[in-house]
Design brief:
The complex is a heterodimer of chains A (210) and B (609). Chain A is mostly helical. Chain A is 76% helix and 0% strand. In chain A, helix 4 packs antiparallel against helix 7. The longest helix of chain B is centred in the N-terminal third of the chain and has 37 residues. Chain B is mostly helical and 609 residues long. The radius of gyration of chain B is 26 Å and the shape is globular. The chains are: A mainly alpha (210), B mainly alpha (609).
Chain lengths: 210, 609
């Protein structure tokens, strides 16, 4: 009976009552019917969300000061946004393919996801280069500093994701392994990819509209 | 328990009398495990057994020893500061050194000692054992967490040896002074401090992930959330707080590092330093204060909640009585945790905020006193008509209640804006936060170490040495901090490296300073006794019985004591009750461990809490 019940709801249990004792003795020791990896991923996403939210708060607060000079968005960022959206889409279809145990499709999907992620990172570096060569340094104005900070942190998150993508892919490529063995990893990586897409869209939108 | 249930139990025991085992197996029935047993990592070499261990118990002890070692440095720094304050004529410390010691003492005690000890130390030791798991969810990540902590400590200590020495900006590290010339350690010291904090947060996040997931997902069968000991509730909630609050510190540290190294202006306003206009412009120092205290106030509860949880268990075990109002205690822990994110700006009443802002935070601050007071009442009612054993853990717990109450009451003064304004930046504040956040949790740490030492070593700590240690620490800390309240009232400012011969400062202040310093030296020296006790008892202490305190919680029910790798032998325990079945009427013993099936205690009536 591994039915999961909200943590908040369980706060109202009366563990000393006879009916509750009977229910509690059946308890399997798990609060949520999720794998520990999924709970871990969710925790990490919550912590990352808090970090990015605090940066956004700092950004909005700092923006109000007179010395703020908005930074122009190079066209390359639009291309990068396209690439990261595409990456998320491909990961979604890869996940669907792995659900249906389609070996080849999953494999190709994983390759493509990696390629798109690395292209995105390179694209971001090129955007940096474009900005710096037109004189937008971190020290020139704090708006630029926020841009470099946001892209760096987002990039580091993606590099962290690529580490797990690499582990999953190499496990998949090793001998005798089937989609079955990496299904869960693919699902988790896909979730993380969508999360990073969402973070990027929020950050890019923020910089675009301010 | 209702009569119906007793009746049923009697009926069951009749069945057992029928020479069939149906009865016992029926009321003890626990469904087959649906969750697969945890796979364990087994070490193969000396290095992976004793250094890079992945066993949570061992990591817990590693964490605790590292934290205590760092804490001793913090203690020595406080001695040096006290000598300077009592005898300013000696010229013992340069002003710069005094500020550096203040800063390092504060940061070490709050973060590298208390946070690491409660969550890294007790969390790792107790979570798997008390929840009935074999190990943490991700042992490898857990090991990384400890070593990240070690690196953070090393980076912090390295700042003593860089040019300019460690930062002297105060533990709050407020910009702009933290990174402006003239503040000690404004070049290298502050960078190392910030890097060390960033490493600490990264390491803690890895550990925190483990604590949360182990508590949520890897408990023993039958261990519902509401059957967990309050220690686990405290550590769990504190971990959630830490995971949500440390990001604010991380964000602040990252941006200040950039301000310092690259010359960005996140926090640095336009300013003139040494007659020269700096390149900074427009940054907001108040923004840093908000970020810092958005972390800093939950941090108080990150330390306090595990202490609350542990002390609840110690009181219950050593008073042989169930904890009063278990559910209310859990709610209070969760409630305090939630409210702790809405009180941060009470640290900033004099920063020039909008008065309505101060009004809001004064209100929330008073509201958070409600669940806290509920806890204090419940501890006292737990003791009421209990069979109080004046063992060392009990003595320390009692001392905790008094000290925490004391610190809490002065908190009411400081939480009100109008009362706080004249008192802020005086010794009254120093007395308040040392009572509530220094002495109170440390007393719990001592109680907990006396309580769980046999679980780690299989031996008891020496009782006589412990009693001497207790009385010197308890009475001594009052000798140190009570006079500081008075100093605060007469207006002695904190953070001054010497109190000048000023007509505004009463002469009694100097005498009190000498008295406090002597008390501080004695209390500090008494800790050596404690260290001696810990070191010597590990080899020569009296052998402990299994479950020496007759506790109900699972950590004492392992097949071996001290528990072995994997904790539980062949099968993980099954849990049939909460952790507080003490002095149950009708039971043979005055305690029923959590894993004793009902068939073995058929006569026992379970009381409502």
């Amino acid at each position: 009976m591994s039915k999961s019940k909200g943590i908040i709801k369980s706060l109202f249990e009366k563990p000393w009552e006879k009916d509750q004792i009977a229910i509690d003795n059946e308890h399997q020791g798990q609060t949520l019917s999720l794998s520990k990896y999924k709970v871990g991923l969710r925790t990490i996403m919550v912590v990352s969300t808090v970090i990015f939210s605090l940066f956004i708060v700092a950004y909005s607060d700092r923006m109000l000061v007179h010395d703020w000079r908005s930074m122009p968005e190079p066209w390359l960022l639009w291309l990068n946004t396209g690439v990261i959206i595409l990456g998320s889409l491909v990961f979604h279809f890869t996940k669907l393919a792995s659900d249906k145990d389609q070996n080849d499709k999953t494999k190709n999907g994983l390759y493509l996801v990696g390629f798109l992620a690395y292209s995105f990172l390179i694209g971001q570096l090129l955007a940096w280069y474009q900005l710096m060569s037109s004189g937008y340094y971190a020290t020139t104005n704090v708006a630029n500093a926020f841009f470099y900070l946001f892209t760096t942190l987002h990039g580091l998150h993606l590099i962290g994701g690529l580490y797990f993508w690499g582990r999953t892919t190499s496990k998949f490529l090793s001998k005798n392994s089937k989609v079955e063995d990496v299904k869960h990893s693919i699902e988790l990586c896909a979730i993380y990819w969508h999360f990073l897409l969402a973070v990027w869209l929020v950050l890019f939108g923020l910089m675009l509209f301010t | 328990m209702s009569d119906e249930y007793e009746h049923k139990l009697e009926a069951k025991s009749d069945y057992t009398a029928d020479a069939s085992n149906v009865g016992a197996s029926d009321i003890d029935a626990v469904p087959e495990a649906e969750v697969a047993d945890q796979e364990l990592y087994h070490s193969h070499s000396w290095w992976t057994t004793y250094v890079f261990s992945q066993d949570a118990k061992y990591i817990g002890v590693q964490y605790a020893l590292t934290a205590i070692g760092t804490g001793l440095l913090g203690l020595v720094l406080s001695w040096l500061m006290r000598i300077q304050l009592a005898f300013p004529g000696l010229g013992w410390l340069e002003p710069a050194a005094y500020y550096q010691f203040v800063t390092m003492h504060g940061m070490i005690m709050v973060i590298y000692l208390l946070t690491a000890l409660f969550l890294g130390g007790f969390g790792n030791l107790l979570i798997p054992l008390m929840c009935g798991s074999r190990d943490m969810a991700f042992p490898y990540v857990n090991m990384l967490s400890y070593w990240a902590f070690v690196v953070a400590v090393l980076v912090l200590l390295a700042s003593f040896f860089v040019p300019g020495g460690p930062t002297g900006a105060g533990w709050t590290l407020y910009p702009p002074q933290a990174i402006t010339a003239g503040t000690p350690g404004s070049n290298w010291g502050i960078i190392l401090m910030l890097v060390s904090l960033i490493l600490f947060v990264a390491g803690f996040t890895m550990g925190g992930l483990n604590y949360i997931i182990t508590v949520l997902q890897l408990r023993a069968r039958g261990m519902t959330l509401m059957r967990m000991p309050l220690t686990i509730w405290g550590i769990f909630t504190a971990t959630v707080l830490a995971l949500l609050a440390f990001p604010a510190l991380l964000v602040g540290c990252l941006m200040m590092t950039l301000d310092s190294m690259l010359g960005t202006s996140f926090f640095m306003p336009a300013m003139v330093s040494l007659g020269e206009k700096l390149s900074y412009d427009g940054g907001s120092p108040i923004l840093f204060q908000h970020l810092f205290w958005f972390f800093g106030h939950p941090e108080v509860y990150i330390v306090a909640l595990p202490a609350f949880g542990i002390v609840s268990d110690l009181l219950s075990v050593h008073a042989r009585k169930n904890i009063f109002g278990y559910r209310m205690m859990v709610w209070a822990i969760v409630g305090i945790g939630a409210l702790s994110f809405f009180v941060w700006a009470h640290h900033m009443y004099v920063s020039g905020m909008n008065p309505w802002f101060g009004f809001f935070f004064a209100t929330t601050t008073l509201i958070i006193a409600v669940p806290t007071a509920i806890k204090v009442y419940n501890w006292i009612i737990t003791l009421w008509r209990g069979n109080i054993q004046l063992s060392l853990p009990m003595l320390f717990s009692l001392a905790f209640i008094v000290t925490f109450l004391n610190g809490g009451l002065t908190g009411l003064f400081l939480g009100n804006v109008t009362v706080d304004v004249p008192l802020s930046d005086t010794y009254f504040v120093v007395a308040h936060f040392h009572m509530v956040m220094g002495i109170a949790p440390i007393l719990v740490v001592f109680g907990a170490i006396y309580h769980w030492y046999p679980l780690i070593t299989g031996r008891m700590l020496n009782e006589t040495l412990g009693k001497i240690h207790f009385w010197i620490t308890f009475v001594g800390s009052y000798a140190i901090y009570f006079p500081m309240h008075y100093q605060g009232f007469v207006g002695v400012p904190r953070r001054y490296f010497e109190i000048y011969d000023s007509p505004y400062i009463d002469t009694s202040t100097l005498l009190l300073n000498q008295f406090i310093t002597i008390a501080a030296l004695i209390v500090g020296a008494a800790q050596l006794l404690f260290l001696y006790n810990i070191i010597v008892s590990a080899r020569l202490g009296k052998k402990s019985k299994k479950n020496p305190w007759k506790a109900c919680s699972l950590e004492w029910q392992t097949p071996q004591m001290p528990p072995e790798h994997g904790n539980w032998g062949k099968e993980t325990p099954k849990v049939y009750r909460w952790a507080y079945d003490f002095s149950v009427p009708g039971a043979k013993e005055d305690y029923i461990p959590q894993n004793v099936p009902p068939s073995e205690v058929t006569g026992a009536k379970v009381e409502k809490t």
